[in-house]
Amino acid sequence: MKRLSEEPNVQLRDVPQLLGLATAMEETTAQRYQRLAARMERLNERGVAGTFSALVEEQRDHVEEIARRSIESTGAPPPALADPRGLPSEIARSWDEAEASALLTPYRALGVAVDNEMLAFAFYSYAAAQSNDASVRATAEWLAAKALDHAALLREERRRAYRREGAGRAHDERPTLDASSLPEFVRQSRRLESRAAVFHRRIASRLAVLGEAAASRTIAEVAERESAGGPEATDGAVEAGSAELAQAAKPLPLLRAALAEAERLHQAYLDLADRTRDEQVLAAAQQAADRAMQSLAAIAARLQAFG
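RESULT FIELD:
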């Protein structure tokens, strides 16, 4: 389950303030989804754009639902949020990562939506636990339950998207993991991570040649994390994949390629976690996905610095 990494910076005094904050969260999410839909349209990714457009409509339904609750409980619509600092920062980070993504698909777009709902659930659960006001607690618990309901519906959509994309996965270049035991997972994971380390190390070297020292350090640190589990790969596939990048004259294509490689690794772990029935493999895949997310976040931040 998604958790808040820090306590929310907000003191909820009453129900109107809570519902105003909830409305702001839903409206901000809708705006982000709208931006992502527009971006995907520009990239001619109609399927992903359609997914985000549908999510915009979902968010608007949520806003109307909160407004009805506000009128029923307070006699007035939710107030406008005066101070946005109470919004959970993790949600903004997940949007930023989605906007920077080099491999965004309907399945992954819906994954962002699920994560947002689970972060909202964590936020409202925290608010309910911390409040001494019975009406605030009841409203926060209602909002938390709604977030769980929304997450469940989105998970169903995500599963359908996964099945729809299944045929395409057989022909794409994403690495796959099919480990049924922890030792097998360790072996497969080391192989994938070592290949990614070679790829990222060569990108780091090229960035250094281009005079992009900070970006080079970021990618080199990613490669170090990936190579920690064992010796680096030396097969021809890695050579072929990085030959063209060795001649790149600008940093942006290099950073996008580095991001895409990190995303492929991260997605391989998430896909295995979705499929496995082995508890040890599940825990290991989730931990590996968390490590890969550190690399994703670092590369995405560096990429955004280039505009």
